């Protein structure tokens, strides 16, 4: 082996050699970026289409390099037979003919022991590369391999012919009119030729080639065509180099002439690539070949690696499944019951995943790295999928628990004080609740330990639990958003409860005193009502500043002033208006109140004493005054005229509540007139009743003389009985003056009940005495006297009776009249 051939596993192709050679593709399949520079250096790049390309393929150590050197004057290294048979050429090399513009490709030998299991794949790629580029492809065949399948490279030729048609057949192989690919000359050089008839050797090779051509998959355009449409077949025999050196050299010299003078390179073989584009063309051909997976043949080692890595992976899955089974029971219960949050779930998963990956890595490290790495991806995906199900369930359970905790906290839970005064330290409370909820999620789902334990970014990204970092982060963001919405909802509820509380504060301060003022209806009704409203508002505003302030909802100063002075004041004003309207009541209620006011004035004097309409009373004047008082009520209560602080609202709040101009009107003018009319009618009846009472009084006080005469005549016996009895006489002398004076002074109304109560036992006694003294006739006259007294009493009482006048009253009056 010569030193010019790089036999180490280098990652970069060898640099341009002083011997006018370059390694186009190295042992590790890397294409040499310096090819263009090489073509410049060997003065090919400037030749346009005036150059040719040839290549040689064949078994390792079959004299390929020796032949090419002899034909083209290249200096490809050759094997030194003294050191045994070994691989000399590695990769694909390119040299230039020493005289002619011919590029010569020397390929790594097939069936290489050194390359081992990977040899088949590399052979296919390099041979296809040579076929794609070379106009004349020399196929080196030992004479004793002719007729053999593998040894004569027939399977390799089958593959590269098929792929050559597939990959480089014009624009589209499926198109019947696709451009035909340029022809290639396949020159079979039979080495160590002996006495076997050449025509038989050629026939054997030709037959093999026809078989290949007929059985390979071809593009539609190539279907049914003979092999000779695409390949020119030629055969040469070279005698044994060692045993017949002269004949060998002679034959090689003849072949050299064919290459240089006999026009072996035909125009139809040209790839149509200008010399300055050859390097790029070669690169794209190589990349196409490398990307084609059909050329990759798994070696036995690889197949073994596949089987073993699969088995190791299964063992790892089983172990992992057993380890996470308790977690699955809790988070994915088979009976579909609610999942239970597992403490330190992520740490547990991390530990199990790491153990699984280590176990796999340890087992698979003894096999092909490519296969082991590939299978490691499957292991990783499996661990990720299993872990993801658990982590997703945990995230859902933790998020639900966090939301529940937050809702309970902001709703006060069992804290009675919070329930009754939810605004107390609201900001602090809600932020604490938010933090507690997020802590529940973070404790259950944090995946930070992964990035903390793995510092290398690519190792982190390929970890089975890498997904968890993103997935927990996005779930956390979702939870924050949900809690944000919950907080907003809770804050709105608390604001509403706070507003209600302030309104209740106002109403409890306002309602009772305002009702009292409205019931009494003083002359300065609205100024007193305004005072009540302002006092209530001042107390409410003070309380509101406390609940909206630092100890409560902690609104900013300006916002708090706006809420109190605009929103709340506005609502309190509306509440005040509504309360006043409710207190004034319906029109029928108002009519009753007007009647009551009328009667209070008409029936009672300034001291509240019931009036007795005596004969001299000016009922008409009194009636007019009382009716006006009743009517006044309707006039005063017709419109609410609040003034003062509460009534002075800001422009903004007025705009918000779309205040109407007639906002304070309770009774319009039509209703007022109607109420006055009804009052007039109902009070008229009371007036008539009073009038009749007055008439009755007049009758009682003016008893005619003749009636006294009649009484004297009819009651003569009784009179005599009284005069004769000293007891009765004495009694009469006392009682009669008293009764007379009492009637004269209108005493019955207020004295009669007392007098009756006092005299009743005495009258009973007197009656008994009369009964005894006068027997039956005298007793009848005594009863009549008492009846008169009762009649006067009942008249007076009827006048003082309050309440609505009824027909019964009228009838009673009528009866008295009659
Ligand atoms: N029997 C025989 N030996 C030859 C012939 N030509 C060359 N050799 C010898 O075969 C050995 C290998 O020759 P190389 O030219 O290095 O063979 P190669 O195919 O290029 O080898 P690799 O590049 O390793 O694949 C050398 O010792 C040559 O002298 C030949 O026609 N017949």
Automatic annotation (TrEMBL):
Biased composition annotated in UniProt, kind: Polar residues: 795-804
Lumenal topological intervals: 724-726
Binding site for GTP: 58-65
A Gene Ontology term for the protein's cellular component: endoplasmic reticulum membrane
Residues covered by the GB1/RHD3-type G domain: 48-282
PROSITE patterns: G_GB1_RHD3 (PS51715)
GO biological process, any: endoplasmic reticulum membrane fusion
Transmembrane segments: 727-745
Cytoplasmic side: 1-702, 748-818
Predominant place of localization: endoplasmic reticulum
GO terms for MF: GTP binding; GTPase activity
InterPro entries linked to this entry: G_GB1_RHD3_dom (IPR030386), P-loop_NTPase (IPR027417), RHD3/Sey1 (IPR008803), Sey1/RHD3-like_3HB (IPR046758)
EC numbers, comma separated: 3.6.5.-
Function of the molecule: Probable GTP-binding protein that may be involved in cell development.
Similarity-based family: Belongs to the TRAFAC class dynamin-like GTPase superfamily. GB1/RHD3 GTPase family. RHD3 subfamily.
PANTHER family named in the record: PROTEIN SEY1 (PTHR45923)
Protein name as annotated: Protein SEY1 homolog
Organism listed in the record: Gracilariopsis chorda
Organism ancestry: Eukaryota, Rhodophyta, Florideophyceae, Rhodymeniophycidae, Gracilariales
